[in-house]
Amino acid sequence: MISLIIRRFFQLLLLLLGISFLVFMSMHFAPGDPATIIGGPNATSSDLEAIREELGLDRPVLVQYFDYLGGILQGDFGYSYQTGQAVTEAILTRFPTTVKLAASSTLVAIIIGVIAGIISARKQNSWIDVTSTTFALAGVSIPNFWLGAMLILVFAVNLQLLPVGGLNAPFYTLEGLKELILPSITLGTASAALIARMTRSSMLEVVRSDYIRTAKAKGVRKRPLIWIHALKNAMIPVVTVIGINFGTLLGGTIITEQVFAINGVGRLMIDAIAARDFPIVQGTVLLVAAVFVVVNLIVDIIYALIDPRIGY
Predict the structure, then answer these.
(1) Helix%, strand%, coil% for the chain, nearest 5
(2) What is the 8-class DSSP label of residue 56?
(3) For 95-127, what is each residue's pLDDT tens digit?
(4) Domains of the chain
(5) Distance (Å, rounded) from C-alpha 282 to C-alpha 216?
(6) Do the beta carbons of residue 284 and residue 210 sit within 8 Å?
(7) CA dist., res. 29 & res. 64, Å (int)
(8) What pTM, to 2 d.p., does this model score?
(9) pLDDT-based confidence at 309, cuts 50/70/90?
């Protein structure tokens, strides 16, 4: 396990190095000039040149990249072109909000997906199974922005039961929990559908195993047979889906944050892309990539806890 963690750590460094290069180059070769956006419509040519020189944009791109890389090694991710705020500070201010949204959405997805998958597997080919499969297909197919808008229209505007948006209150308060409900359902629906389908297929495979038939023959009751003997082994592929989906949700909160006016990392990235704020974009992408790799490492560790037969 220790050797696995060490290998993954070096893989993480190489992955982040490659991502930093791709993002840096794609941002610098994309249409648009940060100096023009910063200077505004009334900026003269000399003003734009002065801005480029101040930001270091007049130097060769590779020189800029290696300077940026050197700053990262020292813990300096640069400063925002728009606000002058340190990138680390700007991201860390909003990152807890995004993590809170991604974690609550994952929790919603796990609760709905695992329960629906187990029930579908137990009631295979029944109307419950057909209904669950239909809802799973709908959950994958419905776009987040449409679902979010509909939930706001029904529960916030018409029924006035929940707030429209924003995650400003602490999550452990009643108001904070109310603020989390709609965006969590919006973001977690597609993941719940995937988890439900994976849980169903995994459970159907496990319940046909020899050891389950043996347990049945010994007189083990159906409830402990499903929830104790079958579920643990069926959860191994499900844990993979949950781990990957958490990383995806963390990087995919952009649309949901826009719909619900949540000041998270996704919204920060969208604003930075529109303003050609290179340091902010690069910092947010590196952060999401690092979290994604760390989550996958945690999933590998959970594998060993669920099934001790797994070795690395």
Answers:
(1) 75, 0, 20
(2) T
(3) 888 888 888 888 988 888 888 888 888 787 788
(4) 2-87 (no CATH), 88-306 (1.10.3720.10)
(5) 56
(6) no
(7) 13
(8) 0.78
(9) low
